[in-house]
Design a protein that fits this description.
Layout (H helix, E strand, L loop, with lengths): L1 H17 L5 E16 L4 H4 L12 E13 L4 E13 L5 E12 L2 E7 L29 E11 L7 E11 L5 H5 L5 E4 L2 E11 L7 E13 L2 E5 L5 E6 L4 H8 L10 H5 L4 E14 L2 E11 L2 H4 L9 E8 L8 E8 L29 E2 L3 E2 L1 E2 L2 E2 L23 E10 L5 E14 L4 E17 L7 E12 L5 E13 L2
Antiparallel strand pairs: 1-2, 1-25, 2-3, 3-4, 4-5, 5-6, 6-7, 7-9, 8-11, 9-10, 10-13, 11-12, 13-14, 14-15, 15-16, 16-21, 17-18, 19-20, 21-22, 22-23, 23-24, 24-25
Keywords: Signal
Protein name: Capsule assembly Wzi family protein
Organism: Phocaeicola plebeius (strain DSM 17135 / JCM 12973 / CCUG 54634 / M2)
Amino acid sequence: MKLKAILLFSILSSSLIQAQTENTSLTYHVELGATAGGGTYAPLWFTGNRYGLGSTNPNSGYLLAGVTYGKQFQHGWRIEAGLDMAGGIHQAQDVFIHQIYGDFSWKMLTLSIGSKERPGFPLTKNTALSSGMLVEGPNTQPVPQIRGEIKEYLNVPGTKEWLAFKGHIAYGSFAENGWQKKYVQPGQYFVKDVLYHSKSLMLRLGNKDKFPLEFEVGILMATQFGGDKYLKLEDGSTEKVLDMPENLKAYWKAFFPQTGESNTPEGEQVNIEGNMLGSWNFALNYYLSEWKLRAYLEHYFEDHSQMFWQYGRWKDGQIGVEITFPKNRWISSAVWEGLNTKGQSGSLLYDGFWGQFPEYQISANDNYYNHYIYGAWQYLGMGMGNPLLPGPAYNKDCSISFRSNRVRAHHLGINGQPSSEWGYRMLISFARHWGTYNTPLDQQRKQFSSLYEATYTPKWAKGWSASAALGLDRGNYLGNATGGMLTIKRTGIIL
C-alpha cells in the first residue's frame, strides 16, 4: 500500500506541475458519520452498500477526508487520481486507506490502478435504491486491483448506434491485512494473501433516439484464487494447512476456468481451481416521454449447472423493476426487487465431488458464497454481493462463512426531492432465511430492515450537506434494532 501511495502521489505531483488551470481540477471532500442505537447489530441499511464505511456495531463513527485530481489532455486523453484516508470507532479497521487510485483514460478506454469505489458492473442498478448486486458491488471496502475497462457503452461501428458494448477485466488482491486471523477463534480456519479476478461483457441492442425500447444482456464472472489457508491454534499461533498456486498458470486459470493440477486439493482437480462465481444479466428499458421503465434480471451461478440453467432459468437470482418519474417534487424514482437464492441446484448431499461419476448428472448443494478453501466470498467481514445475505461480520462464532445463504426477499426503494434543498430516501426490505443445506436453521427466520433518510443541502452553505436517518429493523435472524445516523459532508474546489 505504501508503494501505491508513493506512485500515485508522484503522478499527482508531476501532473500538477504541468497543469493548465482550465483543463485541471483538484477537489477535496470531508465526511463525518456517526450512528447510535440499540440492538445486537446496527440496522442493516446503516451498514449495507456503504463501501465498507458502515459498521455492524450499533454505536460507531468514522471520519473520512480525501482529494481528487483530474486533468484533460488533447486527443481524448485524461487522468484522474484520488486518495481517501479514514479512521473510525468500532470499525473493521481503526485507520485505513479507503481509496487510492489512478485512472488513465483514452476516449472510452480506461486503465484503473488501485482501490476505488465501484458501484457494480456490468448491469446498471440504482445504487441509492437497489438492494445491491449479487456478485460484487458497493457492500465492501474497495478491493485493490488493476482494471482495464470500457465503463460506458461504446457503439459498434457500422451498426448505426443500434449495437453497443462495455466490459472489463481485472486482477487484484484481498488486502485484509491480517483481519481474518484476528477475527476467527481458535480451531477455525482462515486465509491470507488471496488473489482476485473479475471480468464482464455487456451488449446493448437498440437506439432510444429512433425506437423507445432497449435490450441489454451480458455476463459477469469473478474468482478468488491463490493465497494460503491457516488453522488458528489454541495458543493464538497459526499453522499453514494449504498453499494454493500463484504462478502465471493460476492467473490464466482464473481468467479461463479450468481444473486444478496435482498441487491443489482433490476438489479443485475435479472441479474448477479457485472459487469461481458469476451472474447472467438482462435488462429491458422503455422510454416514454419523461418516463423510464426498466426491468432487469441478475441470474446468479457458482458452477456450470446454474451457469447454463440446467436447473431452471429463473430459480435463483434477482428480478427488479425501476420507474423513473417525470420531474416532480415528491417522487423521483422507485425500485422493487425480488431475490431468491433458495434453490442452489437442489439439496442433494453426498460424499464426493462433482465429476467423479461422469455417467451421472450430479451437481447440487451449490452453497452460495461459501467455499471449502476460501471460507466465503467476503472482504473484511462484509459480503461482496447483496447485503440481504449478511456476511461473516454477523457471525457470533466468528467463522468466515455465510450462516444463511438460502434466502427469499422483497425490497422497495423510493426517493424524491421535495425542494432544491431537501431530499429523502426510503428503503424497506423483508427477508426469509433457511440457513444452508449443510447447516439449516432451527426454523425459518424472518427479518425486516428499513431506512428513512432526509438530506439537507443548503444554498447558503455551498459545498455542505447533512443527512439524518432512522433505521428500524425487526426480526428473529439479525434481531431487533433501532438507531439514528447523522452524516455531514463538505466538498470544495482547491484548483
